[in-house]
């Protein structure tokens, strides 16, 4: 039986936990399965989920939200021009990015597969595919 989440709370005790990726936490409508095997559905009106949110279902059962690691690419640049061009191309695809000095971190996503492929060919860009916590800059993944 699928449980319907009716409320999101903070700082209360919980009965179960669920690990969600960054992308899943941004979805206004989500179905997932908790660690104890509870199927649930949530419609988060006007917001998205945050780490440590407590989801309360219609029966009062509570599920704590935890972040899972995502498949990410870490792009490290040796020159400013490659950095700027790559950032521009990723931004043109409306993908969320985590930018720091000479590095860009992006989620492994099919929509930027060609950009990543080109980065591997560019000797001034070091590309690492790994698992990690994605923390995009600004108000990433917004709607217009």
Query: What's the overall average pLDDT, rounded?
Result: 92
CATH level 4 superfamily of the largest domain: Urease metallochaperone UreE, N-terminal domain
Q: How would you write the strand order of the largest sheet?
A: 2-6-5-1-4-3
Q: Just name the CATH architecture of the largest domain.
A: Sandwich
How would you spell out the order of helices and strands? EEHEEEEEHEEHE
CATH class descriptor name of the largest domain: Mainly Beta
Count of folded domains: 2
Described by strand count, sense and barrel closure, the largest sheet is: 6 strands, mixed
**Uncertain regions: pLDDT < 50 for 5+ in a row?**
none
The helix tally amounts to: 3
Instruction: Briefly note the structural class of the backbone.
Output: alpha+beta
Helix content range of the residues, please?
10-25%
**Rounded Rg:** 18 Å
Structure, described:
This protein is α+β, with helices and mostly antiparallel strands and 144 residues long. It folds into 2 domains: 3-67, Urease metallochaperone UreE, N-terminal domain (HSP40/DNAj peptide-binding domain); 70-132, Alpha-Beta Plaits. Helices cover 19% and strands 39% of the residues. It has 3 helices and 10 strands, in the order ββαβββββαββαβ. The strands form 2 sheets. It has a 6-stranded mixed beta sheet with strand order 2-6-5-1-4-3. The chain is elongated, with a radius of gyration of 18 Å. It starts with a strand and ends in a 12-residue tail after the last strand. The mean pLDDT is 92.
């Amino acid at each position: 039986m699928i449980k319907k989440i009716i409320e999101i709370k903070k700082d209360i005790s919980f009965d179960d936990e669920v690990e969600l990726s960054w992308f899943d936490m941004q979805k206004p409508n989500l179905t997932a399965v908790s660690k104890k095997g509870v199927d649930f559905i949530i419609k988060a009106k006007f917001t998205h989920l945050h780490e440590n949110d407590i989801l309360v279902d219609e029966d009062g059962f509570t599920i704590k939200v935890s972040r899972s690691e995502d498949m990410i690419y870490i792009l490290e640049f040796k020159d400013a021009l490659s950095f700027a061009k790559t950032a521009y191309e990723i931004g043109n695809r409306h993908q969320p990015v985590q930018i720091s000095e000479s590095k860009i971190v992006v989620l492994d996503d099919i929509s930027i597969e060609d950009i990543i492929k080109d980065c591997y060919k560019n000797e001034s860009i070091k590309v690492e595919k790994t698992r990690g916590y994605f923390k995009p800059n600004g108000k990433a993944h917004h709607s217009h």
